[in-house]
From TrEMBL:
Keywords tagged on the record: Lyase, Metal-binding, Signal, Zinc
Signal peptide range: 1-22
Similarity comment text for this entry: Belongs to the alpha-carbonic anhydrase family.
A GO molecular function held by the record: zinc ion binding
Cofactor(s) recorded in Swiss-Prot or TrEMBL: Zn(2+)
Protein's recorded name: Carbonic anhydrase
Function: Reversible hydration of carbon dioxide.
Gene3D superfamilies in the cross-refs: Alpha carbonic anhydrase
Native species: Athelia psychrophila
């Protein structure tokens, strides 16, 4: 009874106007950013995502689900192996999807990665442990409050996800993640710039334009950071696995007032911590 009510609303499985193959199924929204079929509430929230749609089965039974607990013993990507590039551009779309706010912008990521399954062979890769290099493109990034990943059991105030798809057209996804720590002292200008437009998109389905986004200063720092690396899943339905995660070990700063605006717009949109990699899903243990 309860479950059939839920499945009645699960038909919203429409491709977005995507700029990269494979990203469609990260956010099952329509081109007009219709409300998501899932939420962070009760009946359509994370504990019941696996019952909302047959495609979401891994949200309940997957054994390599994200987010996870990270700590000082977690694997790191090889030092200096991450190269993010996001050229400055005018007129950037900024959207309130109801489940997050998202910035539509192109970028690329190159990462030496021995674990990546859909590698591109490159001939001149002197810094890579293997002769392979991950070469993927991004068309959007979004935010979660509080953070989804926890380090040494601690949540940060927010988390930013740059989502990449493989240039070879395979459906594989890579996420470059940054934990955000609030404070009075500093923030990145690109975050302040983007979030200064939050008042234009208070409600789900609204979109606005940021006149210019230049994140080269942030990107230069990001390319100096260390990253935890593991293979997990999307943290939203359909919770697909085989997602390569890079989570920066250094949290990035943001002003308290900016965080307050972000939180008031997106609410709490974090999936709860999943079982350790390879372990039975907690929803199956209950
Ligand atoms: C680090 O995390 C792993 C996986 O959750 C866990 O097995 C291990 O005990 C943790 N180590 C410390 C020092 O907390
Ligand atoms: C991203 O790049 C693609 C391919 O070059 C282009 O068609 C698309 O318009 C770009 N999107 C944005 C938001 O700049
Ligand atoms: C990465 O992919 C782009 C096209 O998607 C290509 O132009 C570029 O040469 C590739 N770089 C490497 C190092 O393979």
């Amino acid at each position: 009874m309860f479950l059939s009510t839920i499945s009645a609303i699960s038909f919203v499985q429409v491709a977005i106007a995507s700029c990269a193959h494979g990203v469609e199924w990260i956010h099952p929204f329509s081109a007009n950013i219709a409300p998501a079929a899932f939420s962070y509430g009760t009946t359509t929230g994370p504990l019941n995502w696996h019952n909302l749609n047959a495609n979401n089965i891994l949200c309940g039974s997957g054994t390599n689900q994200s987010p996870i607990l990270l700590n000082t013993t977690s694997s790191l990507a090889p030092s200096g192996s991450i190269t993010l590039n996001v050229p400055p551009v005018p007129n950037v779309a900024f959207e309130n999807l109801g489940t997050t706010v998202e910035v539509i912008i192109n970028g690329t990521l190159k990462a030496g990665d021995a674990a990546w399954n859909f590698k591109q062979r490159v001939s001149h890769c002197s810094r890579c442990a293997t002769s392979y290099m991950l070469n993927v493109s991004m068309c959007r990034f979004h935010f979660h409050t509080p953070s989804e990943h926890r380090v040494n059991l601690v949540h940060y105030e927010a988390e930013m996800h740059f989502v990449f798809t493989a240039a070879d057209g395979s459906a594989k996804i890579t996420v470059l993640a940054f934990l955000i720590q609030i404070g009075p002292g500093s923030s990145y200008p690109f975050l302040e710039n983007i979030f200064s437009h939050l008042p234009s998109i208070p409600n789900a389905g609204q979109t606005t334009q940021v006149p210019r986004v230049d994140m080269r200063g942030f990107v230069a720092h990001a390319n100096q950071m260390s990253y935890y690396q593991y293979t997990g899943s999307l943290t939203t339905p359909p919770c697909s696995e085989g997602v390569t995660w890079y989570v920066a070990t250094t949290p990035i700063p943001m002003y308290v007032r900016t965080y307050r605006n972000l939180k008031n717009t997106i609410g709490s949109n974090s999936r709860y911590t999943q079982s350790d990699l390879g372990q039975a899903n907690i929803l199956h243990l209950l």
